[in-house]
Amino acid sequence: GAVVSQHPSRVICKSGTSVKIECRSLDFQATTMFWYRQFPKQSLMLMATSNEGSKATYEQGVEKDKFLINHASLTLSTLTVTSAHPEDSSFYICSARVGQGNAPQHFGDGTRLSIL
Amino acid sequence: EDQVTQSPEALRLQEGESSSLNCSYTVSGLRGLFWYRQDPGKGPEFLFTLYSAGEEKEKERLKATLTKKESFLHITAPKPEDSATYLCAVQASGGSNYKLTFGKGTLLTVNP
Fold first, then answer.
1. Whole-angstrom distance, CA of residue A58 vs CA of residue A51
2. Of A47, A72, B24, B66, which alpha carbon lies 20 to 30 A from B89's?
C-alpha cells in the first residue's frame, strides 16, 4: 500500500520548453502532496505544498510563476516547470501523506529533468 | 529555523560489521522524526517514524532510537543489500503545513 507514482522518470529538452510532471497516489487519497527538488549530494529541499482544491503554498525563494502546481483531484498533482533553463536541471520528487497529522510522507521515484 | 545534520557523510562497512548513523536536529518543537532509505535514482522509501524521546523502532537489521537532540539508526550485521543513502527528516510542531526538513544523508556501502 501507499504507492506514489511519478511520471515521467526522465525528461531531456531544450531551453525554453515547459515541462509537466505528474504525481499520483495509486491506492489512497491525498489531500496534500509535496514537491521537492534534490541536487547531487544535497538534501531534499521542499519547493511547495500542494493542496487539493486550493492554491499551493510555496517555500521562500521558489518562484510560483516558474513552478506551476495544480492539484485538481485527490489522487493527482502536477508540477509544470515553465520556460525551463539549464539551471532548472535537477531531480524533482513528489510525496503524499497517508492520512492526517504527522503520518509519514511516501515518495514517488522522482523525475530527472535535464535542460540543454 | 529547523536544522538537521547527519553524520558521517559516508560509511563503508564489511558485511556483518554493525554500526550506527547519527542524526542531530534543532527544531522549535518536534512533531516527528522520520528515517528514509534512498537508492540511486529513486525516491526515498519510508522506514520509521519516532515521536518522543526514548522511543525505539525496529525493522529487520535496523533499529532507530530518539533523544531530545538526536536520533541514531543502528544497523546490525549489515548485508550488501543494505547499501543506500539513509535520510533523516524532522517535522516541527505548530502550524498545519506538516512539512519535512531533511538532512543531507549518510551514504552507506556494505562490502561482501
1. 11
2. A72
